Structure formats: structure tokens, C-alpha cells
Amino acid sequence: MENMPYRSNVAGQLIPARPEPVVSSDWRQHLPVIRGSRVTLRELRQDDAPSLFAMLTTEEVSRFISPPPTSVDGFERFIEWTKHQRAAGTYVCYAVTLKGFDTAIGIFQVRELEPGFGTAEWGFAIGSPFWGMGVFQDGAEMVLEFVFETLGVHRLEARAAVKNGRGNGALLKIGAVQEGLLRKSFLKNGQYLDQALYAIVEDDWRAARETRVH
Ligand SMILES: CC(C)(COP(=O)(O)OP(=O)(O)OC[C@H]1O[C@@H](n2cnc3c(N)ncnc32)[C@H](O)[C@@H]1OP(=O)(O)O)[C@@H](O)C(=O)NCCC(=O)NCCS
Predict the structure, then answer these.
(1) Ligand 1 atom nearest to 159, measured from its CA
(2) Angstrom distance (rounded) from CA 25 to CA 181
(3) Tens of pLDDT along 116-175?
(4) In terms of Cα–Cα distance, which of 11, 17, 130, 7 is closest to 72?
(5) H or E element: which one contains 88?
(6) Residue 60 Cα, ligand 1 centroid: separation in angstroms?
(7) Residue 93 CB: number of other CB atoms within 10 A?
(8) What percent of the residues of the chain are helix, what percent strand, and what percent coil, each to the nearest 5?
(9) What distance in angstroms lies between residue 165's CA and the mean position of ligand 1's atoms?
(10) Rounded CA separation 142/39 (Å)
(11) With contact defined as beta carbons under 8 Å apart, do 189 and 66 qualify?
């Protein structure tokens, strides 16, 4: 895995951004492009499959998450699936790109836990060359805004394997509160791992945002 042929190339060959098409305001038809200070979030495209395969299938990225697709074809099918789920209004998946570049270096996923997105769960994965650079935080803040303002979520859950130091640290620093421990809830490589259950509730997110603004 560590020596995958195109892993190191992708990190060094980011493709410049091209103009995004004008999009509908209805996220079920097309996800709105969201621009932050470091990253741009946009709809996944079929041609993201090679870079996502390179970024998300390394051992360090996939160690504590559900197994990603194992081939570029598999990612193409995954991307197709995300569009169907988005059109059905049950799920969204944003590609993470660096500001000014077009290459997908990670994803943020949100799925409804009840019809209508009242409660939802999110997950995220970013290529390890881009860890610890503020990419996660910038992307996560925009996803939270989208989740609470556009999807209308009032409670956003996340699960992180207790052993996943960065995953837990990332959730805590974005304002998630650990509510419980799900013992032996996640099967990984034949072993059941404990997971921490986190949530961000809309009221807390709004209060924290007010504090940041003033
Ligand atoms: C989760 C992920 C998106 C976070 O992005 P990131 O760039 O690594 O996150 P950040 O560096 O901004 O934040 C991680 C925080 O955890 C802290 N941390 C806590 N325990 C840690 C540990 N054992 N090792 C490293 N960092 C740890 C870091 O110090 C950092 O906090 P700081 O910025 O205040 O110093 C990325 O690590 C990733 O894609 N991991 C693989 C997939 C995954 O595990 N997804 C999450 C499932 S819940």
C-alpha cells in the first residue's frame, strides 16, 4: 500500500482549478461549491477516482475507517453511487481540493440517520500529505455550515475508533462533544474496536459561531 505507484505523484502534481459550472441552488441536483481560506469543496467527479484512490487507500489513512474501494474502478463506482444518494436526498459527499487547485485530496461525507436529515452522521478522510495543515479544519467548518444551514440538521454524530488519535483530536477541535463509548462496535481486520460517539448539536454550533463572530 505505501508503495502504490501513483501515490507520491499525485501529491506533487496538483492540477490547477478550472471554472466551476453555474449550479442549481438545490443541493439534491448539484452540490454548491464552497470556498474557504485554504480549501474548496465541490461535487465529486468521475475523474477524481485516481487521486482519491491514491490518497485514501494508504495504510495510514484507511487504518481506522471502513475499507475504501480497492481500485480506481471501485472509486468510479463509489462516485456514481454518491450522486444517486445525493439525488435521493439521503447523503452528500464533498470532494476536498486545495484552494486554486482541482485535484481531489479527500472527502467529507454526511448521511441522514432519519428521513429528512434531522439527525445525521459525518465522516471524513484526507490524504496524509495534507494532514496537520489546516485543511481539515477549514473544510470541516464549511461542511458544518452546510449541514446546519442548508441540510437543516439539528444533531450531527460521528464515530471514531478510540485508537484513532488524529480522528478524535480533529473532532474535538471542531467542537464535537464525546457522548459515549461504543464498546467493540467496529470490526476492522478481524478485530472489534471500541469507538467514541461524538455529536455536535445545532444550538451549540450556533452559539460557538456567535462567539467567533463577535
Ligand atoms: C481525520 C483527519 C481528516 C484529520 O485531519 P488532520 O489534518 O490530521 O487533522 P488536524 O491535524 O487538523 O487535527 C488533528 C488533531 O489531533 C491531535 N492529535 C491527537 N492525538 C493525536 C495522535 N495520536 N496523533 C496525531 N495527532 C493527534 C493533533 O495534535 C491535532 O490537533 P491540533 O491541531 O490542535 O494540534 C485525517 O487525519 C485523516 O484523514 N485520517 C484518516 C481517516 C480518518 O481517520 N478519518 C476520521 C474518522 S473519525
Answers:
(1) 48
(2) 38
(3) 999 999 999 999 999 999 999 999 999 999 999 999 999 999 999 999 999 999 999 999
(4) 7
(5) helix 72-88
(6) 11
(7) 20
(8) 35, 30, 35
(9) 6
(10) 10
(11) no
